Structures are given as structure tokens and as C-alpha cells.
Amino acid sequence: MQQKNISGKYRAIALGLVMLLVLAACAPAARPVPISTPAPVGTPPQSPLATPIPTIEPATVPAVENIRQLLAKQMQIDPATIKVISVEKVEFSDSCLRLGQANESCAAVITPGYKITFDVAGETYVVHTDEGGSQMRVAAAPAPAVGQAIIAWNGTVDNGSCYESLIGVNGVAFGPCYGQNKIGGKFVTEARQSVLQDLAAKYDSFEANNEFGSVRFTGTGSTPASEADQQLITRWAQMVTMEAAGGESLAGMEYRGPAEVLDPTESGGADTSKCAILRLGTPVTAMLGACDGTATDKDMGKATYLEWEQLRDRFAPFVYETATETITFEGMGLESSEAWQRAILAWARARHAELASGTASAAANTVLSWHLGQDYSQKNVCTHLTVMSYGYAYAEERMCEGGDVMETAGGWLTPAELTSLDEWIYQRAPLSIDSNYVTGQGRQALSEAEQAEVNVWAMNVWARLWNEAAVANLAPEALAKCPEASAESKRLVDARRGICLLIPADYTVFDPNPNELVIAKDSLLNVTEPRLMLSMLGAGPRTLEEFAADMVASMPGFDIKQSTAQVAGTDAIVLDNVPGQDLLRRVLFLHNGKFYDLTFSPADHEQMDSFYQSILADFRLIE
């Protein structure tokens, strides 16, 4: 397999971006220049005229409507709101329309063209064009308002011209190098804006010069940007500049594979032609290219388009090749790893197979199917995890009898989760235990210890996805009940169990099975320091007193002490001296038809009382 980064001169995805209606035919060769910030608008230079200026009917000059459409795209507004104030026939005294920059040489030749004046929300824009409209230059524009500036960039754009930009929290100011007048554009998606905010919060300030241009970055974070980070950020700034100038997203993907449609979970085969093509861009339409040279546009469907948007917004550009497949991915994000590149290749392969065949099969994309056991807080409900080849997982509640799916919560794996899955898929042999399986493509068998890791991994992924979905469905007033974290504590919200609380900052939450949650220091196996295990059980017709009495009766011969307490305003029964690996303290209460069992151990630890009191003091019930 071969992994590549996309160089500045490489563009495999033809997205048809026309930048500023073909930027300046007399544009100079690009070279890094000092970065300038947008200057207030001055009086635009007046072009010497051979004849008096005649006023032209706008409809007779095609460039007028083209420029209006482009301005509308750059500012993300309705073209109808942009008014044409005047169109004047002009003979400019040089080939640069009298707007040459300090870094270019303009031929002293009369150039017929137009001076076009627009009104955009009360602001004036003046543009010079040649007669055919193939060259345009901004003569006057309002000073762009980009908010707090984070990145100043200059370098080469797709057509070889030198461009510079100032990227702030509210937008992008861009224009030719050394130009006095910059256009204020918008981010083409909120994802770009979010990434900029994340970058500023993470990295310290730096300046860099690499193949993607020159950049001055002003950050508030403490992380020094490595050379690779700086290159990635510079390339990101280049893409943002080009997108703002064209008013369109440059995100896209091209998949090339064998003539025969592959099983979505397989990447092998002997056909190295890479003649079958899938291209995705901004529209909902996907382009399918067949090996006979024909091309077909197909609606990718809402679900696929939403997945594409999530991938596009999150991941950095890359090229990844195998003997039989190549994917070229132009993403808007910065996240990058070889595991995710393989996952995105698997996603592209699956989408190509579906669109080419006209059929979709979740089973064909499944690489891990894992039954996690029964949820005893509910009747006839078992938990199950399904993971797709491209790193998307479904946490499911199924009927224990029959296996029908009752509820589902889906989401992408985290980078750490995907790293584990990637190893099991590509470096380990297939695994099948009862009704559980992993479709490994390697030769090395999973050891017993690794099989146990798969089970723990699956339980943790299931719990995370289910809880994230449950939290998302909580009303704001429910979350408002939860205590705020401090320097010594962090907040745990478990919406599935309807609780939130503060736990020590150096403690970790574990989900060993569907019925238990463990809060322990460092490791699930740490039983020597104070820890809490919480479980829930369907109450049925029993009262809290009956539940406690049954528990005491199940441990004859032990001197179990019984007392009362309050947990989140609810009456609770406390049992001390409960036998176990160590002495336990169990706190029992009833809420919404379920028994809650909080087990603290070891009860005789010198720090147990403070741990116990801190947990109960900040324990809340939410719903």
C-alpha cells in the first residue's frame, strides 16, 4: 500500500472552480510576498480615456452578470440584491487595466474594457474588466470585516497566480499579491470556521514558508506546531482562500477501482486497471465512470450525502493507493491518520458498489458484530454492536428472543477506537465466536487476551454511542441540574441511567457490561483504592425495603449494618459490612421503577469516607 499527501501542484478532482472569472491574464509568476492586511478603500485610480465615457446598458455586457453572480457566491447572498449602478466603456492605458501591482510588469498598450460599479447592501464595489470579460480587477471595495485575524497567508492558487488572504473568525479577505483592495468573502461551510477556532485554541503562534505558501498564524494555544502541522495549516489556508475567491467548496473525492464491483469489505483482487470511478463533490449528485469510458450521474441519496458531509468536514486531504484501488480525498478538516484513510477508502468502495449495483446492504459492509449481553434493567432487551468497514458503528438494543432491533444509536468511531479496529481488520485473521465475529483480512489469529480486548472495546463503544445519543435528547433543564466540574473533579453524565455526578479528576469510567458502570482510579483492575460500581435492575412489584431485605437474606451469617441516607433527594438504604473481595458499602434506592445499587469498596480504606461523601454530595437524577 502507498500513502501520499497531495502536493500543491496536484489536483486529481476536477471541480470546475473558476477563480474570479480567470484572474488577470497578465498575472505575474507567483512568489511569496510580505503579507498585507486589508487597507481602507481609497479613491480608485482613474484610467486615462481616449474618448468621453459612454454609459452602457448592463444587459449588453456579459461580464456584468458574471461578476454579480460571483460576488453573490463569495458573499453568500442573493444575486438579485446586488445592484448595478453603472457600466462605462473605457480604454485603459495598459494591459493591467490601470491596476497593476508592484510585483508585475504591465504592457503599455491601449486595452478596451469596462468600469463596472455595483451596490451591495449600501457598499460600493468598482471592477475593471477587459472587453471580453476574461480579465477583471477590483478597483474599489469596502474594507473587509473578518473579525479577529488568525491566519495571514500568501502563495500560489490553482491558476498559478500569486494571492494573499487574511483569515479571521468571521470570514476571509482575499486578493492578488500586493493588491490594495481585498474582497471580503465567507467560509463556504461552518466546518471551516469550526476548524479555524479549534486551530487557534490549540496551537501557539508561528510563521512558516513551505510548498503551500507563506503563513503567519496567531494562536492562543500552548501546543507548538510541528513542521507537519505547519504544512497542513498552510495548505488548509490555501484551500480556504481559493474557496472564498470562488465562492464554492473545493472538497471532493475520487475513487478508482477494478472493473468488477468489489465486496465492500474486500480490498484484494487481481484487476489493477483502476478504471471504475466514483466522484463526489458539492452537489448531491455522484458521478460514476465505467471502464468502457461512459459516465453516469446518480443521486447519492440523503443518507450517503450526510455521511459524505461528515467525512468532508472532518478529515484532511490525502491520496491513498493499493494495487487495485486509489482514492484522492480533498477534505476540509485537519484530522489525518493512515487508519482513517483506509476507512475512507472502504467507505468509497462501499458507496461505489451501492451506486453501481443499485442495491445497498448493511451486512455486506459489516466488519464487526458483537453481542454484549442482556440489560437486566429492562425486560427481554439485549445489547449489540455493529461496526461498518469505514468506521461507523451502531449501538443497538435488540429483543433477546428473536433478535429484532428495537432502538439504535449510531456514530463514528473515535481515532483511538478506529486504530484498534484497523489492526483487527487488516492485521488479524477472521474471528468467529458463537454469533460474534470480526472479518479480519490478515493471517495472525487473535489471541485470547486480544479477544477479551475486543469484548471490552465493543462494550465501551456501545456505551459511548448510546450515552451520547441519550444526552443529545435531554432537555436543557435536565442538564442544568448537573454540577459543574472543578480543578479537582470532572463531570460524568450517564443519560442512559439517568444520572450525573462529579468524580475525582484522576478517575476513569469503565463499562464492563450492559448492567454495570465502574468508577476507578487508573484501571478497572485497581481494587485497592476507593471505587464505585453502579448497577440498575428492574424493580417489578418489590419495594425498596423488600429489595434490601432480600439482599441481606442472601448473605446469612454476616453482621450487615443497615442505615438510611439521601441520594439526590431520594430515600436510600445503606448496607455496611457487606461481604465481597473486600468489605463493601452498598447504597440502594428506587427511582422510576428501577433499583439503583451503588457499591463502594474497599469500605475500610482510610480515604473511603471522603470518597463516599463527595460522590453522594454531587449525585443528581436527570430525565
Structural class, from helix and strand content? alpha+beta
Mean pLDDT: 88
Q: Categorize the overall geometry.
A: elongated
What gap, in angstroms, lies between the N and C termini? 49 Å
Largest sheet: 7 strands, antiparallel
Instruction: Tell me the strand order in the biggest sheet.
Output: 1-16-17-12-13-14-15
Number of domains: 4
- Poorly predicted segments: 2-52
Content of β-strand? 25-35%
Number of helices: 11
Provide the gyration radius in Å.
31 Å
Relative helix content:
10-25%
Q: Say how many strands there are.
A: 33
Give a description of the structure.
- The structure is a single chain.
- The protein has 623 residues and is α+β, with helices and mostly antiparallel strands.
- The chain folds into four domains: 18-246, no CATH class; 252-358, no CATH class; 363-472, no CATH class; 477-621, Mog1/PsbP, alpha/beta/alpha sandwich (Protein Transport Mog1p, Chain A), CATH 3.40.1000.
- It has eleven helices and 33 strands.
- The strands form six sheets. The chain has a seven-stranded antiparallel sheet with strand order 1-16-17-12-13-14-15, covered by helices on one side. The protein has a seven-stranded antiparallel sheet with strand order 26-27-28-32-31-30-29, sandwiched between helices.
- β20 (392-399) and β21 (405-412) form a beta hairpin.
- α5 packs across α7 (415-426).
- The model is unreliable at 2-52 (pLDDT under 50).
Task: Summarize, please.
The chain is an alpha+beta fold.
Topology, element by element:
Layout: E1 2-4, H1 62-75, E2 82-92, E3 111-120, E4 123-130, E5 136-140, E6 149-156, E7 162-168, E8 171-176, E9 183-185, H2 190-202, E10 206-210, E11 213-217, H3 227-246, E12 252-257, E13 276-280, E14 285-289, E15 295-299, H4 302-314, E16 318-321, E17 326-330, H5 338-357, H6 362-365, E18 366-374, E19 381-388, E20 392-399, E21 405-412, H7 415-426, E22 431-433, E23 436-438, H8 448-472, H9 476-479, E24 489-494, E25 499-504, E26 507-513, E27 516-521, E28 531-538, H10 544-553, E29 561-567, E30 570-578, E31 584-591, E32 594-601, H11 608-617, E33 620-621
Antiparallel strand pairs: 1-16, 2-3, 3-4, 4-5, 6-7, 6-11, 7-8, 8-9, 10-11, 12-13, 12-17, 13-14, 14-15, 16-17, 18-19, 18-23, 19-20, 20-21, 22-23, 24-25, 25-33, 26-27, 27-28, 28-32, 29-30, 30-31, 31-32
Helix pairs in contact: 5-7
